Amino acid sequence: MLALPQDVVEKLGLQFVRNAVVSYADERREELKVMGAVNITIGDRQMMTECLMLPPTAEALIGQVVLETLDLLVDCQRQTLVPRPESPILASSKLK
After folding, report:
1. Residue 17 to residue 77: CA distance in whole angstroms
2. What is the pTM of this model?
3. How far apart are CA 27 and CA 59, in angstroms?
4. SS3 label, residue 68
5. How does pLDDT run across 43-55, given as a tens digit for each residue?
6. 3-state secondary structure of 34
7. How far apart are CA 63 and CA 30, in angstroms?
8. pLDDT category of residue 21 using cuts at 50, 70 and 90
């Protein structure tokens, strides 16, 4: 899921959708607001999704759902997001 700081959410004018409980890596749990809908564009790919609202001082986080939907990989060496080699032009999805 996408997570954005409160000040960014307010600047975008996103509307409250519901509350959700999130679990952190250190096992803490917290209830956060889910806001939506937001259109996210990375490179030539875009999607519409909801986002979690983080405290104003937090960093924005692009979660696994966004990366999978946009069919992007993390290039740690170059510190960028790149299209999967199997789908260089358009995002692809598997249906079973």
Report:
1. 37
2. 0.86
3. 19
4. helix
5. 999 999 999 999 9
6. strand
7. 17
8. very high
Q: How far apart are CA 77 and CA 1, in angstroms?
A: 24
Among the residues of the chain, which ranges form H helices? 6-12, 64-70
Reported as a single tens digit per residue, the pLDDT across 81-96 is 999 988 888 888 778 8
As given in the structure block, the two tokens for residue 74 are 């993390």
Helices (H) and strands (E) in the chain, counts: 2, 7
Lookup result for tokens 């875009």: 46
Which residues sit opposite 45 in a β-bridge?
42
With 0-12 / 13-18 / 19 or more C-beta atoms within 10 angstroms meaning exposed / middle / buried, residue 31 is exposed
Q: Is 84 left (phi over 0), alpha (psi -120 to 50) or beta?
A: beta
